[in-house]
Amino acid sequence: MNRSIQFTITTLFAITALLSTTLAPSAVAKETLLERGTYLMRSIVACGNCHTPKNMKGQELPGMELAGGFGLVEPMYTWVTANITPDKETGIGNWTDAQIIDAIRNGKRPNGSTIGPPMPIELYRRLSDRDVKAIVAYLRQVKPVKNKVAKSVYKFPLPPNYGATVWSVPEVSRSNPVKYGAYLAGPLGHCILCHTPMVKGRFQFKTHLGSGGLTFYLPFGEVYSANITPDKATGLGNWSDGQIKRAITKGLGKDGKPLFPPMPFPYFANISAADQDALVAYLRSMKPLPTSRKVRFVPKKK
């Protein structure tokens, strides 16, 4: 082949590759806030898993999206989810966008009171500006539902704050699967919160990140979260990528048997293929940690 032609073709390939890399963020930027918010809320963020009331079978009540009232009794508190529809009397219809963002990222209501657990404020503090605005855009278009709910009751004092006020968080690049997967499993999906054990009211993120064992007190019994680290004996080390994705999106274990709630499988079924890849990449990168817990479910005594 003529060297000049070969050089031209090689150069064109290089330019094309460069353009495809640099254009990726602009393609993402074309996604409107409402489009982004709709995707997040109906997939990885899954606010409806807690804020939409359910029947005894765990099915969401029709016409009650994000109307609150769902709750559980735990040893240290009884929590009831808030109505986050735009209803002005019982929801957040009178809140400004800034006040909603402050509640999500800083755990503060407009009246100055602190939002308590199980809201994962520690992780929501790292939600990017665009994503938290996208979530607000989605909340604004939800049907207002008048539904006054009870307040959560805590047997311990809530903190005055969760740290210095978060004012701005940059966008997380999707070009690095591991880093973006960490963002998906952390601030967006709070997977690492539910799958990390708690000791004396504090999550053991530094020493037992993702090793499972957190207790969920559900109406039918106690569920203990799974080890999602790459540990081969007690974690996901011997699972294939396909098996991990199936567990996340379909709620089926390595053996094909149904997994336990409260994992929001109906929401996670809508996670995009690219985001599934990023989640798996991050889970593979975690430090393998063994867990001694073998029993994942203890039925409620009659």
Note down, in words, how this protein is organized:
This protein is mainly alpha-helical. The chain has 2 domains: 31-157, Cytochrome c-like domain (Cytochrome Bc1 Complex, Chain D, domain 2), CATH 1.10.760.10; 177-302, no CATH class. Helix content is 38%, strand content 8%. It contains 12 helices and 8 strands. The strands form 3 sheets. It has a 3-stranded antiparallel sheet, with no helix packed on it. Helix 2 (33-41) crosses helix 6 (129-141) and helix 7 (177-188) crosses helix 12. The protein is globular, with a radius of gyration of 21 Å. It starts with a helix and ends with a strand.
Concise synopsis of the structure shown:
With 302 residues, the chain is mainly α. The chain is built from twelve helices and eight strands. Helix 2 (33-41) packs across helix 6 (129-141) and helix 7 crosses helix 12 (273-285).
Kindly list the characteristics that best describe this protein.
single chain, 302 residues, mainly alpha, Cytochrome Bc1 Complex, Chain D, domain 2, 3-stranded antiparallel sheet, 12 helices, 8 strands, 8% strand, globular, disordered N terminus
